Amino acid sequence: MFSVQRFRSACRVIPLCALVLLLLAAAPAWAAQPVLRVLAWPGYAEPEVVRSFALEHRVKVELTVVTSDVTLWEKVSAHDYDVFAANTAELQRYIVAGLVQALHPEQIPNTRNQLARFRDLAAIPGLMRGDDAYAIPYTYSQMGLIYDRKQFRTPPDSINALWDERYRGKVIAYDGGTHNFSLAAQSLRLATPFRIAPSDLPRAAERLIALRRNVLGFYNQPEESVSLFMRHGAALMFANYGMQQVRLLRQAGADIGYVLPRERALAWLDCWSITRDARDPALAHAWIDHLLDPQASRYLVERQGLSNTLEDDRNDRANNTPLWLQPPEDTERRERLWERIRSGDRLSRVLAP
Q: Hey, what domains does the chain have and what are their CATH numbers?
């Protein structure tokens, strides 16, 4: 059996043991490596980017990938993370709930390399409260329609194609109530897809029940959508991740087209924010600066098909004005109703208290 006393006695004879003891005593302090806890969407932090940050700052990066706004909210609300990416429409929830802290843009020098429209934070709805900024723009995309060229004589030009009975059982949709209710509002030609009046809610819910009947499957991650599309010979898909999904499908050999609907495409702008409970805000600021490095931003375009905030996007359609996401009238209610719709409930049960 091991005896510390016998080990120490032996060290009087063997000087090397003394060195071992010193190293063992110092190990806990040496091993206490700082940790940055990051929440990101698929493809936002490539392995090389994470490794280079960890080496440069001598820290460990714990990267957690999320695939829905609901999951992101739950994880940030648990107070277990330091920095996260969220779209501008969702950000206000975090500000109101006191889950984020004001940023110090002067600690993020790479913002000087961003396009002018992304440097003017006050001009971007949802980023500011008073004189304080709570997020830095990172990436964006419009949400269009991906279609199989073999199954469409002419490309679809409206969001209503998702409801076309000719494609029943061949439509793929995103599994998220917030965006899906906005699609239903567009389909119904409501005044705005982001503020559904109580009197219009039953119509929107009924419209989503009809969409559910047309859908062969719902997805969360881009790779999941590609698998569904290829495996089932889908005809049409709502592209929540936009060009990211187009790129993945084309790499998989799919003969697809991509269009932006005439109703105006919903578009998201994702930004980096620092949580209120961040253990090292300076390190979190450094992470944001690192992700705005030209190489890290280039990966968004080259590997993910997304847009970055440093370069003009050649995939943007000059004749299409994106409809930037805005905070909905009630996110929690939309998600609650969507869960009921997705599970197969009838309209009366969907709308029940």
A: 35-140+267-317 (3.40.190.10), 142-265+327-350 (3.40.190.10)
- Please determine, for residue 316, whether its predicted confidence score (pLDDT) is greater than 80: no
Output the 3-class SS for the chain: CCCHHHHHHHHHHCHHHHHHHHHHHHHHHHHCCCEEEEEECCCCCCHHHHHHHHHHHCCEEEEEECCCHHHHHHHHHCCCCCEEEEEHHHHHHHHHCCCECCCCHHHCHHHHHCCHHHHCHHHCCCCEECCEECCEEEEEEECCEEEEHHHCCCCCCCHHHHHCHHHCCCEEEECCHHHHHHHHHHHCCCCCCCCCCHHHHHHHHHHHHHHHHHEEEEECCHHHHHHHHHHHCCCEEECCCCHHHHHHHHHCCCCEEEECCCCCCEEEEEEEEEECCCCCHHHHHHHHHHHCCHHHHHHHHHHHCCEECCCCCCCCCCCCCCEECCCCCCHHHHHHHHHHHHCCCCHHHHCCC
pLDDT surpasses 60 at 342: yes
pLDDT digits (tens, 9 = 90+) for 54-87: 999 999 999 999 988 989 999 999 999 999 999 9
pTM: 0.78
